[in-house]
Structures are given as C-alpha cells and as structure tokens.
Amino acid sequence: MKIVLLGPPGAGKGTQADILVKRLLVPHISTGDMFRAAISNGTELGKEAKSYMDKGQLVPDIVTVGIIKDRISMSDCREGFLLDGFPRTLPQAEALDSLMEEMSTSLDAVLNISVPLDRLIDRLTGRRMCRNCGTIYHLLYNAPEVENVCDACGGELYQRDDDKEATVKSRLEVYEAQTAPLISYYEQKGILHTINGDQPINAVTAQLGEALGENWS
Ligand code: AP5
Ligand code: MG
Ligand code: ZN
C-alpha cells in the first residue's frame, strides 16, 4: 500500500507511522527524520537542512523532492511505503504524482490527521525523543516509565531543537500557508481520509486502520 500521512506539526504522524508500518510491513519514510539523520552525520545536506529547520521553515522543494526520489526508487518501496511529512507543498505533491506515474503506480490513500491548533503547541513543547532509536514520547500524554529513559532501548531522551515555543509557532504558520492546501488537492483526487487526531493514540490508530479497510480495533 502506498500511503501519505498528512497533518500539522504535532498531529501524531510519527507516532502513528511507527505503529502502522509494523502492521502494514512497508518502510516508514519521514523527510524530517532523514534531515535529522543528515544533521547528526554532519553532511552538507544536514547543514543546509538545519539552516531552515532551526527557523521553522521548509527545506527547499528541490532538495526535498531529490531525496524522496532517491528513497522511493529503492527496491524496498516496490510493494508500498508510508510517507510521513512529505509532500508538504503543492509543488512537492505534483512531483510525487509525476514520480508515481513514471513508476506506473499511484497513491492508495492520504490519511489526514486533524488536531486543533491549541492542542498542537502542548504536544510539541512536551515532546521528547530517544537519541538512540527515535521513539517518540510526551512528558504528559505518552511518558516513559523512567524519566528521561527510553522504554524501548534505554537510550537518553532529548528535546528537538525546533520544539522550542518560538520555532513551534512559525512551523504552525508555515503549515497553514503551505501544507494545508494539500487537503483539498487530495480531496479532489478522491483519496483523502480525515481522521480526528484529538483522541487517545490507540483510538487514532483504529480509525486510520478503518480508513485503510483494516480492522485493528
Ligand atoms: P518533521 O520532523 O516532519 O516535523 P513536523 O511535520 O513538524 O511534524 P512533527 O514530527 O513535529 O509531528 P508529528 O505529526 O510527527 O507528531 P508526533 O507523532 O511526533 O519536519 C521537521 C522539519 O524538517 C520541518 O519543519 C522542515 O524544516 C523540514 N522538513 C521535513 N519534511 C519536509 C518537506 N517535505 N519539505 C520541506 N521541509 C521539510 O507527536 C507529537 C507529540 O504528541 C509527541 O510528544 C507524541 O507523544 C504526542 N502525541 C502523539 N499522538 C498523540 C495523541 N493521540 N494524544 C496525545 N498526544 C499525542
Ligand atoms: Mg514527526
Ligand atoms: Zn530508544
């Protein structure tokens, strides 16, 4: 299955993607995770991406489309993939459509996780991530068993640089201006499913499953 997860920063795309890929057995492709890996490896791509991410702005389309093209052309994506955080501009969505066409395939579903704005700020400023395995936590809503320690691997938890309140605000503005228009883009194509993301994590998963025709409840 070829799926796009759409939604504002903090909607729960990464949290749900981690659960979904274990059930669907497709690769989880997150452009944000790819950029963060490039930053921690100190590559040129990482340096360029960081200059935008730190300001809460989008990395230029030409860069982002390039890395997605390379990733989706890999053999593990032949049977499907779950895109998390891509596309997030109209030119990116159009580039993905052309890529799908070149590969004689198409997207099966776009899952739009919808969460009210005032909930997103709390979610983002309270998020912690594992430095070692990337597992996502929240100080209140999804806390680890031991403070600052990853349940999955024992790794240290950290706060993303772009989860400070000032950067969060510009990320939310960028979402409204550049990414929200994709909702009607995919609605017109008839593949959009909007899910209420303001419920417990397992309830959101169940509804995402329903939208995909799976019974996970
Ligand atoms: P990216 O890493 O994609 O960040 P984002 O889109 O801003 O989304 P987040 O990862 O912040 O949120 P999420 O929806 O994954 O939520 P999560 O599951 O973690 O991108 C970062 C940056 O990279 C961008 O700003 C941009 O600069 C660049 N970039 C990336 N892709 C790009 C592209 N295509 N083009 C250009 N630039 C790009 O959950 C959030 C918190 O809420 C967690 O603490 C979690 O525990 C908690 N939570 C989750 N679900 C629930 C629930 N149901 N109830 C309560 N709490 C919950
Ligand atoms: Mg994420
Ligand atoms: Zn971990």
Structure in words:
- The chain is an alpha/beta fold and 217 residues long.
- The chain has a domain at 2-116 and 176-211: P-loop containing nucleotide triphosphate hydrolases (Rossmann fold).
- Helices cover 46% and strands 15% of the residues.
- The chain has helices at 13-24, 31-40, 44-53, 61-72, 90-102, 117-125, 165-179, 181-188, 201-211, and strands at 2-6, 28-30, 81-84, 109-114, 127-130, 136-138, 157-158, 192-196.
- The strands form 2 sheets. The chain has a 5-stranded parallel beta sheet, sandwiched between helices.
- Strand 5 and strand 6 (136-138) form a beta hairpin.
- The chain starts with a strand and ends in a 6-residue tail after the last helix.
- The model has no long low-confidence stretch (mean pLDDT 97).
- Bound molecules: BIS(adenosine)-5'-pentaphosphate (AP5), magnesium ion (MG) and zinc ion.
- Zinc ion binds next to loops.
What order do the helices and strands come in, and which of them pair?
Blueprint: E1 2-6, H1 13-24, E2 28-30, H2 31-40, H3 44-53, H4 61-72, E3 81-84, H5 90-102, E4 109-114, H6 117-125, E5 127-130, E6 136-138, E7 157-158, H7 165-179, H8 181-188, E8 192-196, H9 201-211
Parallel strand pairs: 1-3, 1-4, 2-3, 4-8
Antiparallel strand pairs: 5-6, 5-7
Helix pairs in contact: 1-9, 2-3, 4-5, 6-7
This protein binds BIS(adenosine)-5'-pentaphosphate (AP5), magnesium ion and zinc ion.
